[in-house]
Amino acid sequence: MEKTIEHTSQQAEIYLPSIYSLTLEQLQAWMAEQGEKPFRAVQVYEWLYEKRVTSFAEMTNLPKSLREKLATQFTITTLKTLVQQTSKDGTMKFLFELHDGYSIETVLMRHDYGNSICVTTQVGCRIGCTFCASTLGGLKRHLEAGEIVAQVVKVQKVLDEQGERVDSIVVMGIGEPFDNYDELIKFLKIVNHPKGLHIGARHITVSTSGIIPKIYQFADEGTQINFAISLHAPTTELRTKLMPINKAYPLPKLMEAVRYYVEKTGRRVTFEYGLFGGVNDQIEHAEQLVELLKGLKCHVNLIPVNYVPERNYVRTPREQIFAFERTLKKHGINVTIRREQGHDIDAACGQLRAKERKEETR
């Protein structure tokens, strides 16, 4: 494992809105307000997402007056790398510092099919899942769309040095994406746009713990983006113990929303199911899960849980994982076991931040 740490400092200066937070259409509208031609917005996008510059002064095909105007109204969000860890399997985990001193995590995972980045949408989280380090210390604030975009740009610049690119994105880092819905949607539009980072919609996955009104809204967006539910339990009673959000949005209502999504979009949904030793990993739980998902166009992703020191859960024995998988397959449920990555670094979501920034996660 390699680990590098950079000096950190709190920044007290006034923070301008991030230029990364603007969709191309929004930037074109801003240009029109300034009396500029729409093609100037495309030029800015090229500088940001193709050349990946860090200052407006570098945008040399723009008039100097326009560059100065941009610099007075926007910032190009840059993230300071506090910690960078590299696993033996090539997984890279970053702890980034934001302009106000808060920190977030981003993970680069290497697969046979390409490089995938897991991004964060909030500083902390208010959902309170009992197995997750991300929720330690609660929610501090939402991220701007530009701060989510900046995570992808920052990791892409690391990959630029290796002649590689970000091939796919999963929105499964710290925070509940649907709790920051508007900024999430802007982020998705920016990274998906051909003039932006041009990540195909079918190469982007958004996960939610189950904020039901937003599931209906997301279904109505009409995107081709993949959708996942953090399920982790097959019954209302057990899910409430693991995920307090189930009190506000109970499992039967959640499944109604999921069925609406599938019917409206024609796309399958993925259920993330973390296996916790002796809690939700028995054959009876697998059979209950089969009953819950019966007739639904779906895929189950079984996740052997990473041990989190601040939490009490233990790993499911290897043979029990396979027995759970076999039970689902026997009943026709499409299922895979997530390949473990970054096991020799702080791989669990929120774990690196919890270790390095204790004042944020008390």
Automatic annotation (TrEMBL):
Residues binding S-adenosyl-L-methionine, per UniProt: G175, E176, S207, S230, L231, H232, N306
Pfam families listed in its UniProt record: Radical_SAM, RlmN_N
EC assignment: 2.1.1.192
Active site: E105 (proton acceptor), C349 (s-methylcysteine intermediate)
Record's subcellular location: Cytoplasm
The keyword Transport appears for this protein: no
Keyword tRNA processing included in the entry's annotation: yes
CDD domains, A to Z: Radical_SAM
Binding site for [4Fe-4S] cluster: C125, C129, C132
Principal location listed in the UniProt entry: cytoplasm
Cofactor(s) of this protein: [4Fe-4S] cluster
Reactions this protein catalyses: adenosine(2503) in 23S rRNA + 2 reduced [2Fe-2S]-[ferredoxin] + 2 S-adenosyl-L-methionine = 2-methyladenosine(2503) in 23S rRNA + 5'-deoxyadenosine + L-methionine + 2 oxidized [2Fe-2S]-[ferredoxin] + S-adenosyl-L-homocysteine; adenosine(37) in tRNA + 2 reduced [2Fe-2S]-[ferredoxin] + 2 S-adenosyl-L-methionine = 2-methyladenosine(37) in tRNA + 5'-deoxyadenosine + L-methionine + 2 oxidized [2Fe-2S]-[ferredoxin] + S-adenosyl-L-homocysteine
The record's free-text note on cofactor binding: Binds 1 [4Fe-4S] cluster. The cluster is coordinated with 3 cysteines and an exchangeable S-adenosyl-L-methionine.
Record-annotated Radical SAM core domain positions: 111-344
Record key words, sorted: 4Fe-4S, Cytoplasm, Disulfide bond, Iron, Iron-sulfur, Metal-binding, Methyltransferase, rRNA processing, S-adenosyl-L-methionine, Transferase, tRNA processing
SUPFAM superfamilies for the chain: Radical SAM enzymes
An annotated Gene Ontology molecular function: 4 iron, 4 sulfur cluster binding
GO biological process: rRNA base methylation; tRNA methylation
Gene3D superfamilies hit by this protein: 1.10.150.530, Aldolase class I
GO CC terms in record: cytoplasm
InterPro entries, alphabetized: Aldolase_TIM, Methyltransferase_A, RlmN_N, RNA_MTrfase_RlmN, rRNA_lsu_MTrfase_RlmN/Cfr, rSAM, rSAM_sf
Family: Belongs to the radical SAM superfamily. RlmN family.
Something else known: Reaction proceeds by a ping-pong mechanism involving intermediate methylation of a conserved cysteine residue.
HAMAP family per UniProt: RNA_methyltr_RlmN
Role summary: Specifically methylates position 2 of adenine 2503 in 23S rRNA and position 2 of adenine 37 in tRNAs.
Protein name: Probable dual-specificity RNA methyltransferase RlmN
Organism this protein belongs to: Anoxybacteroides tepidamans
Gene name as annotated: rlmN
